[in-house]
Here is the input.
Amino acid sequence: MPFTAQLKGRTKAESVSGWYFENINTMKTNFTVTEFIFLGLSSQPKIQLILFIMFLFFYLLTVAGNIIIITIIQLEPRLQTPMYFFLTNLSFLDICYTSTNVPQMLSNMVGKKKSIPFSGCATQMYFSLSFGMIECVLLGVMAYDRYVAICHPLNYIVIMDRSTCVRLATISWSSSFLSSMVINVLTLSLPYCGPNILNHFFCEVPSVLRLACTDTSLTELVVFVFSIITVFIPFLLIVVSYVRIFQSVLRIQSASGRHKALSTCASHLTVVALFYGTGIFMYMRPQSKSSRAGGKIFAVFYTVITPMLNPLIYSLRNQDVKEAFRRAIAKQRT
Here is the structure.
């Protein structure tokens, strides 16, 4: 029975998602997917309006906050160091990452049409996954930078020179774009003959894979392997780097010296905890055990909340950035 015909006569409590899960097996042989329909975070108009206002505020705060961080670093000579070079990359990345998903989500919340073409979904999935992978690798590189700065301070400028920083950033971006391409090619090469309703607010690999009309075990294995490479290995680098950092800090005699060394790591550790904690939940667990509702909530954290909090974390917990911000404000007043 057609989708619209089955919906006639239903009560308001019977949502589109209910129809979808009841008819998923029938739909799988009915048509070839040309677009995907998002269920989003809520189907209730009042809640959608509240979410729209909230996420619009989050998005504007994310873009503005990260632009401010980038501007301050570029204008302040004292911040022309490897640590802030990578922070500039992270801020630019967060603008790109959140802009890949949030505008589409906001449009779906207020628009009648809550769909995206297959090609648009493929593009969104590619860039969203790429930016997520870049952030994982970049956080690992930033941990290595802190390790060299604290454990090998005399050789820091030599080891982390400009060319090395550029190479590390280039590797982070290029390897992630390539890895995302492999995963997306495998995901999109699967047959999608129905259904076309995504229980999500943007196109993400685990959610799209659920709609494939064939066995996805091989693709899931590839996703898991690449997750280990781009998520677990950088995370392991972060853990090893901070173990060595804490060992070095414990050998510092003065309390003020220990505090100064750890204060440069506090912001980075906070960001790592927020991003990795939610990202690992989504991509390092078998797909069949993932909670759909829980997955959407965790996705909100690493696609919306973390990019918004990053500039706040680095400005509130970083004395150098706070002082540079005060000087920038003072210059504007004079």
Summary: The chain has a mean pLDDT of 80. The longest strand covers residues 35-38. The chain has twelve helices and three strands.
